[in-house]
Specification:
Blueprint: H1 2-27, H2 33-40, H3 42-45, H4 62-65, H5 70-78, E1 80-81, E2 84-86, E3 89-91, E4 94-95, H6 104-116, H7 127-134, H8 141-153, H9 170-173, H10 178-186, E5 188-194, E6 197-203, H11 212-224, H12 235-241, H13 247-257, H14 259-262, H15 286-294, H16 308-320, H17 331-335
Helix pairs in contact: 2-6, 5-7, 6-7, 8-11, 10-13, 11-12, 13-16
Bound molecules: heme C (3 copies).
Length: about 350
């Protein structure tokens, strides 16, 4: 009896091993990138890869043909929203995240297809590259800080002569985290004064390098480590910061630097009203930007005080708030002002 049972178990086990062997052989066939594309992507990007409407083309798209595939992998893993310019045309739709829908191997296969179809000609994407891009999400905020940030800001957030401290930094601990998230998402260059010491170097852009969830985790960490004691940052807040010129960042720049004179609702005080102001609400922002950058009479010059991205953000904010209704200002618009 006993012997028969062991024998029966042996047969079952052999069957399992064979079944596993069989599925391993099938699994060894690489996923079919073209089939994955037709099922999941062609509805927006079209089978021809030419896109249309809010959907950018993937055929002949220089981003898709870049040798370095890191940004593409991030786009497919995490999705992206917001204006994107491809071959001179601006698109602004919502690319879904495929993180939970497709495996590393499937994402590698579909991207390899996209990078070689329709006369595109870029190197293949490997499963390992996708796995590595996916991995950081598993790291905690503290681990991300150690790996990505501590070389510059130092392990205890104390900074150096070149890199500002994050410990005891009022921007990091502000109740409204938007400005800080904006710096992490979009980077920042130019002078910055922290606790009356001025730094002037470059903070890298982390959009495309870290997922929104990872940025939220590391942002939460720096707001709560080393005696800092501010509220956590959510993935939604990070996603809301979006493109470099963010109205949310603009609102926060305005509250900090402009509201003292122009008042919180732009109704004017020491400075003129910006709400309903024809010089603000105008198609071409050049004259308004010149005033902001160079100053005029009692209006201070903000050149060198605020980063170009912050000036673009605050200009976009004042042009779209309190009933104003003029178009956004880009970082390039700001850089063009002499
Ligand atoms: C629901 C529509 C939709 C689907 C489905 C979709 N995409 Fe997208 N995709 C977009 C939009 C919209 C953008 C541009 C997003 C933006 O404006 O930021 C985009 C952007 C991209 C980009 C970046 C292009 C660039 O210039 O950087 C890549 C690569 C891409 N998609 C690949 C894919 C792949 C691969 C799939 C299938 C797994 C897919 N997309 C499925 C809508 C879609
Ligand atoms: C290569 C060096 C470098 C790395 C790496 C780096 N930073 Fe920075 N960071 C800077 C510099 C330089 C500034 C100041 C920028 C300026 O002068 O405009 C800065 C500014 C900041 C600020 C704004 C502080 C303020 O007072 O407004 C925050 C927040 C920040 N970094 C967080 C991070 C986080 C989080 C990471 C990791 C994901 C990180 N940094 C990685 C160099 C770095
Ligand atoms: C110290 C007070 C003060 C601060 C702070 C200040 N402004 Fe002004 N602003 C003024 C004054 C005063 C004027 C009018 C200048 C003049 O009479 O020529 C002005 C004018 C302007 C104008 C031109 C309006 C027009 O009708 O031409 C804009 C735009 C503007 N400010 C935006 C900003 C922004 C954006 C900020 C923050 C980054 C800011 N200001 C911060 C005082 C200030």
């Amino acid at each position: 009896m006993h012997v028969r049972l062991v024998f029966a178990a042996g047969i079952v086990l052999t069957g399992l091993i064979l079944a596993n062997f069989h599925s391993a052989v099938i699994g060894a066939q690489p996923p079919d990138g073209k089939a994955i594309f037709l099922v999941n992507c062609a509805v927006c990007h079209q089978a021809t890869g030419r896109g249309g409407g809010p959907y950018p083309p993937l055929a002949g798209n220089p981003d898709v043909n870049q040798v370095d595939s890191a940004n593409l992998i991030q786009t497919v893993l995490n999705g992206r929203t917001g204006p994107i310019t491809v071959n001179g045309t601006q698109y602004g739709g919502n690319m879904p995240s495929w993180r939970g829908q497709l495996s590393d191997g499937q994402i590698a296969a579909v991207l390899t297809y996209v990078r070689t179809a329709w006369q595109n000609g870029a190197p293949a994407v490997s499963e390992d590259q996708v796995a590595a891009a996916r991995a950081p999400e598993a790291l905690s905020g503290a681990e991300l800080f150690a790996v990505k940030c501590s070389t510059c800001h130092q392990p205890a957030g104390q900074g150096t002569d070149v890199y500002p401290p994050l410990a005891g930094n009022p921007v990091v601990t502000a109740a409204d985290a938007s400005a800080m998230i904006g710096v992490i998402v979009n980077g920042r260059t130019g002078p910055i004064t922290v606790n009356s010491k001025t730094f002037n170097s470059q903070m890298p852009t982390w959009k495309g390098q870290l997922t929104d969830a990872s940025i939220a985790a590391v942002a939460t960490y720096i707001r709560s480590a080393w005696g800092n004691n501010a509220s956590p940052v959510t993935e939604e807040q990070v996603a809301g910061i979006g493109s470099p010129v963010s109205v949310q960042v603009g609102a926060s720049v305005f509250a900090k630097n402009c509201a003292a004179c122009h008042q919180a609702a732009g109704e004017g005080g020491i400075g003129p009203a910006l709400a309903g102001n024809p010089h603000v609400n105008i198609g071409n922002p050049t004259a308004m930007l010149t005033t902001i950058l160079q100053g005029r009479n009692a209006m201070p010059s903000w050149r060198g005080q605020l980063a170009a991205s912050d000036i673009a953000a605050v200009a976009t904010f004042i042009r779209s708030s309190w009933g104003n209704n003029a178009g956004p200002v880009t970082v390039q618009d700001v850089m063009a002002i002499k």
